[in-house]
Fold:
Amino acid sequence: MNIEMQSHQAEAAPAEEPLSQWLINMPEPPTIWQEFVGYIRTNVLSKKRNKMKKKSSNPVYSYLKSVFPILIWGRQYKLNMFKKDLMAGLTLASLCIPQSIGYANLAGLDPEYGLYTSVVPPLIYSMMGSSRELAIGPVAVVSLLLSSMVSDLQDPVTDPIAYRKIVFTATLGFLVDFLSHAALVGFMAGAAIVIGLQQLKGLFGLSHFTSKTDVVSVLSSVFHSLHHPWQPLNFVIGSSFLIFILLARFLGKRNKKLFWIPAMAPLISVILATLIVYLTNAETRGVKIVKNIKPGFNRPSVNQLEFNGPHLGQVAKIGIICAIIALTEAIAVGRSFATIKGYRLDGNKEMMAMGFSNIAGSLTSCYVATGSFSRTAVNFSAGCETVVSNIVMAITVMVSLEVLTRFLYFTPTAILASIILSALPGLIDISGALHIWKLDKLDFLVLVAAFLGVLFASVEIGLLLAVGISFTRIILSSIRPTVEALGRLSKTDIFGDINQYPMATKTQGLLTLRISSPLLCFANANFIRDRILNSIQKVEEGEDDEQEVKRAKVLQVVILDMSCVMGLDTSGVVALEELHQELASNDTQLVIASPRWRVFHKLKRAKLEEKVKKENIFMTVGEAVDFYVRARTTSHDMC
Amino acid sequence: MNIEMQSHQAEAAPAEEPLSQWLINMPEPPTIWQEFVGYIRTNVLSKKRNKMKKKSSNPVYSYLKSVFPILIWGRQYKLNMFKKDLMAGLTLASLCIPQSIGYANLAGLDPEYGLYTSVVPPLIYSMMGSSRELAIGPVAVVSLLLSSMVSDLQDPVTDPIAYRKIVFTATLGFLVDFLSHAALVGFMAGAAIVIGLQQLKGLFGLSHFTSKTDVVSVLSSVFHSLHHPWQPLNFVIGSSFLIFILLARFLGKRNKKLFWIPAMAPLISVILATLIVYLTNAETRGVKIVKNIKPGFNRPSVNQLEFNGPHLGQVAKIGIICAIIALTEAIAVGRSFATIKGYRLDGNKEMMAMGFSNIAGSLTSCYVATGSFSRTAVNFSAGCETVVSNIVMAITVMVSLEVLTRFLYFTPTAILASIILSALPGLIDISGALHIWKLDKLDFLVLVAAFLGVLFASVEIGLLLAVGISFTRIILSSIRPTVEALGRLSKTDIFGDINQYPMATKTQGLLTLRISSPLLCFANANFIRDRILNSIQKVEEGEDDEQEVKRAKVLQVVILDMSCVMGLDTSGVVALEELHQELASNDTQLVIASPRWRVFHKLKRAKLEEKVKKENIFMTVGEAVDFYVRARTTSHDMC
Structure:
């Protein structure tokens, strides 16, 4: 049979010439070094060159424009735009002032630091950022992260366990870059609940409270405190204003034109509550108040930066995690609003803008600033046109830092707790979670892991669980890829998975298999080889039972569709060699169809192309099947 | 344009009907649960059922046959086969006895344990194993592993660093399962050099020697010892017999019929050297000798097994690593010889056989036994027919344990060192390393990392480096997949990567891209989306420069070939949605070609199929291109 086929190949060859010719005469793929150089060139150098080429009028100016988008849109800025931005900026400030104080509280900092953070970073961002709606300032999740991680600070020299934890979480910092959407949904929901529980301290006016963030510690801490005497007045003030804010939001949702009511509600609550406390002297009856807020603008804090000392490693790790979470949040928020308005957010520019905002912030007594979802939504509803609304907000906060701080002395802390509490439901995305459940069960598992991890263990454990499960999935799909049997869709040249297309028909005597892995490598080569051999065995055994007589001719050709395999390593080459040998010993021909560039190149290098024979390598599965069917028909005719 | 296209779709639809129909009416893919159940069924249950079905005469007997292959081939065993096996077995024993003593020495055990290990495990293996040539017994690399890891044993309670090391290497045990061929080549070569250096102790007759295995420690230890007085007689005996053994091997290689000369040379050396020492009383002149070897068969060692105590964790880890290395070696050696003889080794049976051999061994004073490459080669050259040669060898060793042990009292240790040294070059596979270098530079890096790691750090570091680099490669290829532009090969329906096939032509107004990743997921979805958008931008800018006029019509359709994408997660769905939206805002149509089963199912679930519209999902790239080219021609005609 084999010999007959050979002779027919010689006859049939001229007709097939062009196709095989294309495959065999293709150019060499680039080497690893060429690829690396190419990568650097396209990703680092060419961007600048492109920009230079385009507007060659003034290279410095065009470079500046690429770094500071304000130079582009600033030229077209008009008065009626400013009217809208002014309105949006003032609304934003009224929400921002109480939230900033509350978040600073959550982060374990004095209230003025929250306000500082709403001044410098938004100003820098407005010059460098590419989003038009993003409202910059402190946010709840990052504040929580800071407080939970800073409270863990230990001296690594004296405490080896803490030292190990640093190493462990420094790795985490790297992995967090791969937080999936599902992980983020779970993480945010868990963080919202944890933040909410933290607010019980302010709402009940408790003095003793745990520094841990997990549910069990917080609830037991609350439970213990309730045995001590507590001040119900705090709770009355806090919960009544919480109800007021929630009612305002309900109103705003029912009528889109009243968006300013929920936006102003927190500031109104602060003003009312402060006046009530001031007029009734409630601070003497156990109502906790904010007390001193240092008046005045941001002070420089360069002299407070420390770049050595025992905590450097840990601080670096905290910095990395906060930076990544902050950036992820900012880009996610910015992108979702950019999509609504139909423009595209430049991830690299956002990273630059957020980076410089926070560097400038760290030199001027700010803590981590990023894009807040709730305030960005308010900014958007208030009709902001450009990032000028951020500038307006920053200036308003700056003025209030000078003017309002003495007034804020009497602000009850319970009101801050209720403002934070009112912002939390926005972090819990139930419909998003349901959507994920419907789409992908494994992603939902990631979500649940992140949620429960944050809730019952710690922020870091939650993130680690989510990232771990996500990567396990990638690795599993690499080490256990599928090998599908293909069939021809009748009257076409299309070959499809016979499970996906039950109407696809197999050709007798041929087995067509597709390897669905981008790498045929050490981790899966043996598995794939065994899978292929098992499929062959199954075909032979299956047909055995029915037609014992035809046994010798059951399977003559196995066609391997390699169109999805992007690369081989030596283990992959060895597996293919073994497969070829094993089939050859059973008088079965191994045929390779549509090998990719690099794969074909490696087959040549490994001389496998010679062993399998060039005539048995085809451009497409259809071509291969046609060839063998024709060869068989001719040989039958001859018999 | 878009509206026109719509109307043409309605006209063109009937002709396309069958193809889209196939795609849209395909069955639902199995759920995760169904897949899991199916996996269990095919991998755990069906095997037994199949076997039951086939030979239903006696299920117990057929089960026994599947566990003990000896019941199958034993029936056909003939006298002339036994003659060959006897000859091979005796040759094997003559090589095995001195090697076993030497390897026991290397593992830090008394010499009789090496001999015990050559008795029980081969007997068990001969009943359960599926290889015909594999020679079972102690091997060099596993002996080295044992000695290097056991000497590290520390009390985990008092020493936290050691405890961390356990955790670290327990993880390693899992990863070692994925040792690639390249890693193994590097590891073996490194181990050979390390083992060779360890033999310097015996060759020079040194008393003080390091227990570490890295090159630096060993060489400094040798250097220090040379300052002390040492016995040159040891070196004279050792090196002269090493030369004798190497000469014998050279002879054996030149004439294949003299294969027994190198096989007998070690035993002859032992006998000669022992006689010389015995007759000249050389042991009084500083020649180190083996001294007492306990005579008698294997003693039961059940009472010596300890399943608790402070070292349990570490011992478990050592056990796991040794078991995996041993099994990997046995299967690699067995498979390479099985391929020569043209039969197939059953990996599962091998695992069972090696497992039971070593369990039985651990109950009868044996240490780890596996398939030795050098002895298997001798067995093969000696013309063994079945695993009976192992039985012959085991019985011969058993007899010699009773008879020879008193004689071996005077065997110089230097001779054992030279026997081990002579076996080492077989572990260094230079041509294999060259082959890997030619095939795959990254694999070669893995090889070098394993080699240098073993040589300069420790066995564990070497393995960890190799596995780490290998997995980094898989993960990198997952997070940075390629997106290729496709072009049509003239006069065919074949679309190929335009880099691979430079003659492939693009169709004006269409951009065809292929995603070469099996998962469109959190780790690469943003990257792929950005890549696609950049490709589109490049096309538009590129054509911009040349023909400023046609700008509006540069790109109307982007065809995404998803034939290699096996799965989506929610991040992938979001990325596709964003891509669709972004393109739609530029009046460009996103077209999806040849989506796979699960991918299409998820697109349906996510309602993305409705957004992209069913008319824009095609079975193949060719179909999609034809459709849009036809639509455009018709609309041009109408203009």
